[in-house]
Specification:
The chain is mainly α. It has a single domain (about 20-115), classed as Arc Repressor Mutant, subunit A, CATH 1.10.10.10. It is about 65% helix and about 10% strand. The chain is built from six helices and two strands. Strands 1-2 form a two-stranded antiparallel ribbon. It starts with a helix and ends in a 6-residue tail after the last helix.
């Protein structure tokens, strides 16, 4: 039986992965792995609309995965910790070995979550 503190720890881990589990948020995090970006640069890098990027950045900031810094009249965003990017790199490495199983998994329908980018 899990103790209350263990359950709470698992719940926080689940929230982290839920935050990264949205394709739009994941594309933003992926873009920020290359360095700080403004919202307009993220729109260009991800193909998402400005309002979509701003909405998901708000979520990522609330979860402390992304931080904002004022640079003159612009706000730039970057990952709050290099380990956020490392986590994505580790996921990519794992997927290189298990992608077929993940793709064929019937419990999670990726066709509902993967949307074509608008340009």
């Amino acid at each position: 039986m899990l103790l209350t503190s263990e359950r709470a720890g698992l719940a926080v881990k689940a929230k982290l992965f839920r935050g990264l589990g949205d394709p739009s948020r994941l594309s933003i995090v992926d873009a920020l792995r290359r360095g700080p970006l403004t919202v307009s640069a993220m729109v260009e890098a991800t193909g998402l609309s400005q309002s979509n990027v701003s909405n998901h950045l708000s979520c990522l900031r609330d979860c402390s995965l992304v931080v904002a810094e004022q640079a003159g009249r612009f706000v730039t965003y970057h990952l709050s910790d290099d380990r956020v990017g490392d986590l994505i790199t580790t996921a990519e490495s794992l997927l290189a070995d298990v992608a077929r199983g993940v793709y064929e998994c019937t419990r999670y329908d990726i066709s509902r979550t993967v949307k074509p980018h608008r340009r």
